[in-house]
Amino acid sequence: MHPELGPGNPMVTKGQVITMFWRQLAQVVLVTTIVYLLFLLVTKFMGRKTISGMTVFDFIAGVSMGSLGGGFITHYFQGAPVTIAALPVLGLLVVLTGEASLVSLKIRRILIGEPMVVIKNGQILEDTMKKARYNLDNLVSNLRQNNVFDLGMVEFAVLEPDGRISVQKKSQREPLTPADLGLPTIYKGIACPVVREGKVVDKNLALNGLDAGWLRRQLAARGGGDVTDIFFAALNTDGTLYVDWKKDGLDDEHRFI
């Protein structure tokens, strides 16, 4: 706030102080919005990369942009008490951007992007990679993370909006499955945690038609042991109970009941 407009100045009315406050607050909102939109624009042109795929240069550039943006806002409103409003304004802009991308497909494509095919029928699409600002080293690195070390194995590769690569291997390179051989299989779902750090998860037991009494009987059948001594226990879809006991100076015990 300008010193001449401070509340201690007898020539300034309370109404003028309030007007000046709202004027500065509006400037904070405007400047923060402009900086945020500039960041979105610059990030869009930087290309698609995951956090793990960032180079040292990318990291330095990102940190520098954040520092420049924050420094600009604080310097522009130096000494103004409404500067603290920049943080909630920035948070609100992030929330509004996320909501807009959920509601509108067009906005989502502009802000987040859409999947792009970078390998089609085993052939690398160089023009698409240039458009996405995605180089060959990034492609090969992401393929290795998908356990693909031979590009001849790839039928299609899709560059996702978050910078990751989804790979469809050639049919002759896919491993055989029981369905390919016509073999029957048993159902195998997700294990359901029933004990976490010594505490029974009654909700999960109830979902499986069980209770804490059933759990105690299972433990008693294996020689006893208190639930509070269990670090983690989960019920598998085949009815077996996985139990990991808390550390007590001995090697961890892994038991199947």
Q: What is the strand arrangement across the widest sheet?
A: 6-5-7-8-9
Residue stretches low in confidence (pLDDT < 50, at least 5 long) are 1-7
Q: How many individual domains? A: 3
Rg: 29 Å
Helix content: 40-55%
User: What is the mean predicted local confidence, pLDDT?
Assistant: 81
SSE run:
HHHHEEHHEEHEEHHEEE
Our measurement of the CA-to-CA distance between the termini, rounded to an integer number of angstroms, reads: 71 Å
Which labels suit this protein?
257 residues, alpha+beta, CRO Repressor, 3 domains, 5-stranded antiparallel sheet, 4-stranded antiparallel sheet, 9 helices, 9 strands, 44% helix, 15% strand, disordered N terminus
Describe the protein's architecture and organization.
With 257 residues, this protein is an alpha+beta fold. It has 3 domains: 3-110, no CATH class; 116-173, 2-Layer Sandwich (CRO Repressor), CATH 3.30.240.20; 192-256, 2-Layer Sandwich (CRO Repressor). The protein contains 9 helices and 9 strands. The chain has helices spanning 14-45, 56-76, 86-103, 105-111, 126-131, 136-145, 178-181, 202-207, 212-221, and strands at residues 116-120, 123-124, 154-159, 165-169, 192-196, 199-200, 230-235, 241-245, 254-256. It has a 5-stranded antiparallel β-sheet with strand order 6-5-7-8-9. The chain has a 4-stranded antiparallel β-sheet with strand order 2-1-3-4. A hairpin with a 5-residue loop joins strand 3 and strand 4. The longest helix has 32 residues, at 14-45.
